[in-house]
User: What shape does this take?
Amino acid sequence: MALPSGRLVRGRGLRDPMPSGHPPIFGVYLLGSPPPEFGWTSRWIRWPDFRLPADPAYAEKVLTEVWERAAAERVEIACGGGRGRTGTALACVAVLDGVPADEAVAYVRAHYHPRAVETPWQRKFVRSFTR
Assistant: This one.
């Protein structure tokens, strides 16, 4: 997904095949249990399906790292299906990139996936997300 600044962040579902092209240099995985080793630098945010991150402060720190690294590196954010948690995290990164928090879900739905950010509490999390 292209951010307004031109930075790119790939969102994906881990249940889908790995996209073609170059692998990421940095990945963030939003799962209820630790992810496998991927072979590149990664962070795990404990984030059960259809829920919110277990540690919102840590999530903010890691998503800020995503935004910073996206200026010069291939980065990805992924969860199981690639819609709810991934869409929520992408919307938060869009906020860090300057998209108003009350417009970030619509931005991600327009530029990533039309059903991104699945639950009301995920939408509320994005609206309250600040750097």
